[in-house]
Amino acid sequence: MGRYITRVWGVALAAVVALNAAPIQAAEGAGAELIEMFAAVCLQKFPDDSAVQQFAADKRLTVMSDTMIHQLLGADPGQGWIQETARGRYLLTIEMPPFHACAIRKTDTTTPDVLAPFSLLLDTWITTQSGASLKALPAQNMKLGGFPTEVHQWIIDRGRGKPAESLMLFVTNATDRFAVRLVRQIRVQ
Predict the structure, then answer these.
(1) Rounded to two decimals, what is the model's pTM?
(2) How far is it, in rounded angstroms, from Cα 117 to Cα 51?
(3) Contact 174/146 with Cβ under 8 angstroms?
(4) Which of 42, 142, 165, 178 is a Cys-bridge partner for 111, taking CB atoms 3.0 to 4.6 Å apart?
(5) CA 165 – CA 187 distance, rounded (Å)
(6) CA-angle at 43, arms to 38 and 45, nearest 5°
(7) Are the C-beta atoms of residues 35 and 106 closer than 8 Å to each other?
(8) Helices (H), 25-97
(9) b/e 95-117 (16+ beta carbons within 10 angstroms → b)
């Protein structure tokens, strides 16, 4: 239990560092690396698409093919990049309106424990958002692509007249592989 708490606080500290735009030292495994990448791109750069593009260029991420983007986003327009690290492959996508979304995806043979650290990151991040509040919705279980998926969603309230915004965590059990997706989505009016 103590090791778990240490890991959660380690991710929280990394989130605070990420939110202050300082370099992140990924030392907590693939789950922490996934959350740190989400914080650096989807919370700090997005919804400014040019800032996300600049991040991808600065980090020398590989541009996704149109075929791969279509596989991930379906008919929705968007852009995507691939980041290879010692812990595996991460997919960064930006989906264009009507939903403007930033997502980080990772697939592995085991599912990292990301719910508690991701929740802590969001709780920390929302305090940096002037006048905004965050509400967690009940977890849902559904089928995505025919596979059982656990979905966690948080709604951001930025006040009257502001676009609807949500944050999501999807964990899909695809038999011998687990797919984790972290999303920040803004409903464009």
Answers:
(1) 0.83
(2) 25
(3) no
(4) 178
(5) 6
(6) 100
(7) no
(8) 30-38, 49-58, 66-73
(9) beeeebbbbbbbbbeebbebeeb
